[in-house]
Design a protein that fits this description.
Oligomer: single chain
Radius of gyration: 25 Å
CATH class of the largest domain: Mainly Alpha
Helix content: 25-40%
Distance between the termini: 55 Å
CATH architecture of the largest domain: Alpha/alpha barrel
Largest sheet: 8 strands, antiparallel
Number of helices: 14
Protein name: Glycoside hydrolase family 15 protein
Organism: Maribellus luteus
InterPro entries: 6-hairpin_glycosidase_sf, 6hp_glycosidase-like_sf, GH15-like, Trehalase-like_N
Strand order of the largest sheet: 6-7-8-11-17-15-14-13
Number of domains: 2
CATH topology of the largest domain: Glycosyltransferase
GO molecular function, one term: hydrolase activity, hydrolyzing O-glycosyl compounds
Number of strands: 28
Keywords: Hydrolase
């Protein structure tokens, strides 16, 4: 595995990663956070996969069907050629969405006499125990023989024994393979799969067509928006940080975490971006998720929750799996749910503020959100002066992190704005002194005269990429000399060959050694804000070139090799890509706008 050359498919219930050779190497069913069915990405020998094996004469090319989440993989050797469409069905069916826990592989015959073998090797329940395969006439059943019972079903019009024995298959016409967590009630035919393929294609085309269009980088914006949509969970409105667990930030180290959860910070930022793109259903579902997980006025807000609103996310290691390229441990669950991170309050109130000002929301939801806002103000009032773990989830010391303090100010500032918007003037007068107090303390204690910059935490000499967000959250003007100096000092200290560290000081696991993708986007935005627009654009286009073969980004990038690292695809990275692209495209007219302007 030289790089994360995977495409993702999904249907807002679960997802799967398809390698550039057409192998399904990661999938959890029935939901995103269920135990894996295929986990070759975490253990090449034991994890399990569904592979299409061809001889060395075949060339393999992979791409997305235009503006969809359907993956096309073409296998060609001379005149022998076939194409595989991988997708998880999603489309409107009656009053709701049809998005079952299944993957469909549609094999399209193109020409010649193409030949391949199928290696169907599911290992359910994280491959803890052996999975048995049996031909049961209607389907091939996979099930566990020890440990927790689990099963899944493969429906196909290929000869089942050819699959089980990995015999050579000569494709002469279109065929299919459907993997389902549940037994199907209806007969599974090729025509039925073709209909699902076309309906799913139409769904994604229509979804993408509703996105706001931009003059530049529109293709990259659409692909990133499709990724963010895939990482949203229909059932509850949660938004996942990523579809995977334990893909390492650095090969051979132990910074391996489970990201199949909803971080309030990440999800709120995703929702803010999706709002700007015009997709309000995703926004509404997430706001409902927030209302549902914060039922009590005095309940502590966690930094993260399970996608089904779980509040306990116990972390454990799967020692039987060797990890991505030997990077162990493999973790499921995430102990970070116990951490205190004061920045989440500002990010959440910022999103709620947008709901009040930009969208029509019901009176009931408005009242619920207003209650949440007042609860958050009380929490911030009682906690903003205390140290925390910070945005980067430092597992040891708590400190007075600058970004956390800034976001505490954001929480009060947006709460004041919301109060003014709904004519609750009493709260405006009550909260304004608190906002001023927090802001004044930050300006005094976070500024380091010798460094000429706002630093990572009070009294620190270390710089942190998160301080670049001070301007975008409205804390400081882009023309303020202190911000300009912070941007330049942070770039000088943390930027290497166009890629950014989060920070360079030692943490729980030593010195960081890979670039955190979102931080490079933050620097580009900051450079653009202070007027260095040409350099920002050049850096942005360089960063885009580091995506994988289908335009996807993970959490991290290796400074030297530029390989993708960390969990994948990363919502944080793609939301920052969209935000940066929109900022760089401001002021430029789309082709349609140019035509309308010419007519007028």
């Amino acid at each position: 595995m030289d790089n994360l050359n995977y495409a993702i498919i999904g249907n807002c219930k679960s997802a799967a990663l398809i390698s550039d050779k057409g192998s399904i190497d990661w999938c959890c069913l029935p939901d995103f956070n269920s135990p894996s069915v295929f986990a070759k990405i975490l253990d090449e020998n034991r994890g399990g996969s569904f592979e299409i094996l061809v001889d060395d004469s075949y060339q393999v090319q992979q791409s997305y069907e235009r503006t969809t989440n359907i993956v096309s993989t073409v296998f060609k050797s001379g005149n022998d050629c076939f194409e595989v469409f991988d997708f998880m069905p999603r489309y409107l069916n009656g009053s709701g969405y049809f998005n079952p826990a299944e993957i469909i592989r549609y094999f399209k015959y193109i020409s010649g006499n193409p030949a391949f073998r199928l290696k169907y090797d599911p290992r359910v329940e994280y491959a803890r125990f052996h999975s048995r395969l049996e031909d049961e006439d209607e389907y091939i059943k996979c099930y566990t023989t020890e440990g927790d019972y689990d099963s899944m079903y493969l429906y196909t019009d290929f000869n089942k024994q050819d699959i089980l024995q990995q015999n050579t298959i000569y494709l002469k016409q279109d065929c299919f393979a459907l993997m389902s967590y549940d037994q199907k009630l209806l007969s599974q035919t090729l025509d039925r799969q073709y209909l699902k393929l076309q309906k799913t294609k139409v769904y994604w085309l229509e979804w993408a067509n509703k996105l706001t269009s931009y003059a530049k980088y529109n293709h990259e914006i659409i692909r990133s928006a499709l990724v963010l949509k895939l990482l949203s969970y229909d059932k509850t409105g949660a938004v996942l940080a990523a579809a995977t667990t334990s893909l390492p930030e650095t090969i051979g180290e132990e910074r391996n975490w489970d990201y199949r959860f909803c971080w309030i910070r990440d999800a709120s930022m995703v929702i803010k971006v999706m709002s700007s793109l015009g997709h309000l259903n995703t926004v509404k579902r997430f706001m409902r998720f927030i209302i549902d997980i914060i039922p009590d006025k005095d309940e502590k807000i966690q930094i993260m929750y399970g996608i089904n609103r779980e509040k306990v996310l116990t972390e454990e290691t799967l020692d039987h799996l060797t990890g991505y390229m030997g990077s162990s441990p493999v973790r499921v669950g995430n102990a970070a749910y116990l951490q205190k991170q004061n920045d989440i309050y500002g990010i959440l109130v910022d999103v709620i503020y947008q709901q009040f000002t930009d969208f029509k929301i019901s009176l009931e939801d408005s009242e619920s959100l207003w209650t949440i806002v007042r609860s958050i103000v009380r929490i911030v009032e009682n906690n903003w002066q205390k140290p925390d773990k910070g945005i980067w989830e430092i597992r040891t010391d708590e400190k007075h992190f600058t970004f956390s303090k800034v976001l505490c100010w954001v929480a009060i500032d947006r709460a004041i704005k919301i109060a003014g918007f709904i004519h609750k003037d009493k709260y405006v007068k009550e909260w304004e002194p608190l906002a001023d107090t927090i802001r004044n303390e930050i300006l005094e204690k976070a500024w380091n005269v010798e460094m000429g910059a706002f630093t990572q935490f009070y009294g620190s000499d270390d710089l942190d990429a998160a301080t670049l967000l001070m301007e975008s959250y409205g804390f400081i003007d882009a023309r303020d000399p202190r911000y300009v100096q912070t941007v330049k000092a942070t770039e000088k200290e943390l930027c290497v060959d166009g890629l950014m560290y989060r920070y360079r000081n030692r943490d729980d696991f030593g010195l960081p050694s890979s670039s955190f993708t979102i931080c490079t986007f933050w620097l580009i935005n900051a450079l653009n804000a202070i007027g260095e627009k040409k350099r920002a654009k050049a850096m942005f286009e360089q960063l885009l070139s580091y995506s994988n073969h289908v335009g996807l980004f993970s959490e991290d990038i290796d400074f030297k090799t530029k390989r993708l690292l960390g969990n994948f695809p990363q919502a944080y990275s793609h939301l920052a890509l969209i935000e940066t692209a929109i900022n760089l495209a401001k002021g430029e007219l789309t082709e349609d706008e140019q035509i309308l302007e010419a007519i007028q």
